[in-house]
Design a protein that fits this description.
31% of the residues lie in helices and 16% in strands. The chain has 320 residues and is an alpha/beta fold. It has a 7-stranded mixed beta sheet with strand order 1-10-9-2-8-7-3. Strands 5-4-6 form a 3-stranded parallel beta sheet, covered by helices on one side. Strand 4 (159-162), helix 5 (166-174) and strand 5 (179-181) form a beta-alpha-beta unit. The longest helix is centred in the N-terminal third of the chain and has 21 residues, at 2-22. The chain is extended and about 135 Å long.
């Protein structure tokens, strides 16, 4: 009997240990989910006072941008010298060379000979403009068409004229318009049956051309571009042989002005025409309109040139 009692006690003790070990994780999980005694705030937080903007503006002292004048220095600030003494040098140690426009054109022609590249490759200019006006006003991005004194295109532009007057349509055809007509041309343009490089219109037909706005986009006739008017022969003369350029990314003008096989004088004349037309879009009283001017060909490096040399110099005041 005593032996049976001891064996039963051992069995019960083993079962108790097994139950405790199996249920330990359960009890621990319960203990983790029990709410903790968090501190309770018995007072209200003080509301932060807003600082007066006028007081902050007075306290803040604007740091003026340091402008270093290298005019009378023996070498430019942070550079080795004004001009390298050898043909091979590290560019970052010397200031960028800014050429005269005529010298830059000569260099482009010499690069073409040295590199054995096509002699009739296009010549481009890249201008960065200062679009600021008085106070916070800016010059609006514009599109302009100019007559180059020496055109580089071999073919004339195609022009479509919108007019519902039969006499004006006949006049447009005689003046060299590719297409001329009224509202009957709208569906043909939407269906891509006809297209043109430029679209001009008379003022009376503009309300009927609204369906073409999304189709033509920048080519849609506008009075600012000179593509809306009554004098159809004058508009055709401008757009048939004119060269169009526009301001991209708020302040950049990138356009072709010539081909490299043209004489130097012709390239310079075209360059001068485009630069003068660009500068005419902002009053001269606000200072130089062109901040940076670059000329390059299709395969050569970019050359910075002085845009002020291309512009006509103001007449000197006569001394009394």
């Amino acid at each position: 009997m005593a032996t049976c009692t001891r064996s039963m006690l051992k069995v019960l003790a083993g079962c108790q240990r097994q139950l405790l070990s199996a249920g330990g994780s359960f009890y621990t999980n319960i203990s983790q989910t029990l709410p903790k005694n968090l501190p309770i705030r018995t007072f209200a937080a003080i509301k932060a006072r807003k600082k007066d903007k006028k007081v902050e503006a007075e306290k803040e002292v604007k740091k003026e941008k340091r402008v270093i004048d290298d005019k009378d220095r023996h070498k430019p600030f942070g550079k080795t010298a004004w001009v390298p003494v050898d043909d091979v040098y590290i560019r970052r140690f010397y200031p960028r060379t800014i050429y005269d426009a005529a010298d830059a054109i000569d260099l482009l022609k010499s690069f073409q000979v040295l590199d054995f590249t096509p002699h009739d490759q296009p010549v481009y200019i890249n201008l960065r403009l200062d679009m600021k006006l008085e106070k916070k006003k800016k010059v609006d991005a514009f599109i302009s068409t100019v007559h180059l004194p020496y055109p580089f295109k071999k073919e004339l532009n195609t022009v479509l004229v919108f007019t519902e007057d039969a006499d004006q349509a006949k006049m447009a055809q005689e003046s060299g318009a590719t297409f001329a007509g009224g509202a009957d041309l709208i569906q043909r343009i939407l269906d891509d049956e006809i297209s043109a490089d430029f679209y001009v219109a008379v003022p009376d037909i503009l309300p009927k051309l609204v369906p073409l706005k999304n189709k033509l986009r920048k080519k849609f006739p506008k009075s600012k571009r000179g593509s809306v008017g009554i004098n159809i022969p004058k508009m055709l003369a401008l757009f048939k042989s004119g060269h169009e350029y526009l301001v991209e990314n708020d302040c950049y003008v990138k356009t072709q002005i010539a081909t490299l096989d043209m004489p130097k004088e012709h390239i310079f004349a075209n360059l001068q025409t485009v630069v003068m037309d660009v500068c005419s879009h902002r009053p001269a009283s606000f200072g130089p309109f062109i901040e940076r001017a670059i000329i390059t060909s299709h395969t050569s490096e970019a050359l910075w040139f002085k845009s002020e040399d291309v512009l006509p110099k103001p007449a000197e005041e006569k001394k009394e």
